[in-house]
Write a structure and sequence with these properties.
394 residues, OB fold (Dihydrolipoamide Acetyltransferase, E2P), 6-stranded antiparallel beta sheet, 6-stranded antiparallel beta barrel
Length: 394
């Protein structure tokens, strides 16, 4: 039997080969499994595209309370900032001077009526005397003229009485012409109030209506043309003469929950800004909306159409392009570049790039890269149960 001689170099190579074989086996055993992801098909839903604008609330009615008469303010009958109804008494001007003026007008009316009665009886006597040729026709005509003057005087005094009654009973008491919220009083009791039709009358308070309330905003010329063309095709959009439904959200709200309708589009495009003014109307029974408050409004910008939607978290970006990961028949993640639409809650409208049967990665997208094999699981399905370990056989 031949003798084999082992040198130190031969032993070293044998040890190295055994070590490399062990490393290869350990690497193969530690290879990670495909990442688990959740997939779902796009959701089909009827969608209406929305344009969003910023605007302000304005009151339907805004009235400045000013007196028609000059006089001293005697009473204030409201609390600053309260809600008032149409016809509520707000201010009272000292009535005594106007009561005196009414009494004087009534006295002058009685005097005019007495003069008319005398002129009528005098004219009646003149008719008998004229038939008997006792007075001349000129004298009779003078008595007739006197009666006409007396009648005119009575009419004038009656008008003065009505004017004095109006001043006393109506204009000394200032009532709310509209319902709404009144501001703070501008004049205290005891001050002289300047009234009349001139421009220097005294402002006493201001009332703005609350319910309903208007919302004004502006939109550009391109949007205006789009709305008008859709409206001519019978679509219910924000055009002139169409009460399109709209929604708003306040600055501290996340969703558009307040519903209203368009009621006006201006007749002129502003040449300096290239925009046109639109107006919507909203119910405001609880008084939450206040004139001058900012809000965002959604205006429908398309007719209803069938759209595909995916969760917004499933959208990934590659520079300026957007894509979703779709799992193919071999469970490999493939990118599909898409065109995005509006956000509807947590779902994003996909205008182009997806088909209804695509299996979109909706959860676990951070663990996946294009071209990687994955372990997909349908959204809503129970997780797979772990494999039971096999019993060892001795």
């Amino acid at each position: 039997m031949p003798l084999t001689i082992r040198t130190p170099y031969t032993a070293a190579w044998l040890i190295l080969a055994v070590a490399l074989a062990g490393c290869s086996d350990s690497q193969n055993a530690a290879a990670p499994p495909p990442p688990a992801v959740t997939i779902a098909k796009p959701v089909k839903r009827t969608i209406v595209d929305q344009d969003e604008y910023v605007g302000r609330f304005v009151a339907v009615d805004s009235v400045e309370i000013r007196a028609r008469l000059s006089g001293y303010l005697s009473r204030i009958r409201f609390q600053d900032g309260q809600i008032v109804n149409q016809g509520d008494l707000l201010f009272t001007i000292d009535r005594r001077p106007f009561q005196i003026a009414l009494d004087q007008a009534r006295a002058n009316l009685e005097l005019a009526r007495a003069n008319l009665a005398f002129a009528e009886s005098d004219l009646a006597r003149g008719q008998e005397l004229l038939r008997n040729k006792t007075i001349t026709e000129q004298t009779f005509e003078q008595r007739t003229q006197t009666k006409r003057v007396a009648e005119a005087s009575v009419n004038a005094q009656e008008a003065l009485v009505r004017s004095a009654e109006l001043d006393l009973n109506e204009f000394t008491e200032l009532r709310a012409p509209v319902a709404g919220r009144i501001g703070d009083r501008r004049v205290s009791v005891g001050n002289l109030v300047t009234g009349g039709a001139s421009g220097n009358t005294t402002l006493l308070a201001t009332i703005v209506s609350i319910d309903p309330i208007r919302f004004e905003f502006t939109f550009d010329e391109a949007a205006y043309l789009r709305y008008e063309r859709f409206a001519k095709d019978g679509k219910d959009l924000a055009s002139r003469g169409v009460s399109a439904p709209v929604k708003i959200k306040l600055i501290d709200e996340r969703d558009f929950t307040h519903e209203g309708f368009m009621d006006f589009v201006d007749n002129v495009i502003d040449r300096s800004t290239g925009t046109i003014r639109g107006r919507a109307r909203f119910a405001n029974a609880d008084g939450l909306f206040t004139p001058g408050m900012f809000a965002n409004i959604q205006v429908p910008s398309s007719p209803p159409y069938e759209a595909l939607l995916v969760p917004d978290v499933a959208i990934a970006s590659e520079q300026a392009r957007k894509y979703v990961l779709v799992v193919d028949a071999e469970n490999v993640a493939r990118p599909k570049y898409v065109t995005l639409g509006d956000l509807a809650g947590d779902l994003r409208v996909i205008k182009h790039g997806l088909s209804p049967d695509d299996r979109v990665v909706v959860n676990g997208i951070a663990r996946v890269r294009p071209g990687l094999k994955v372990a997909p699981q349908e959204e809503g399905a129970p997780p797979p149960s772990p494999a039971k370990p096999q019993a060892s056989v001795d």
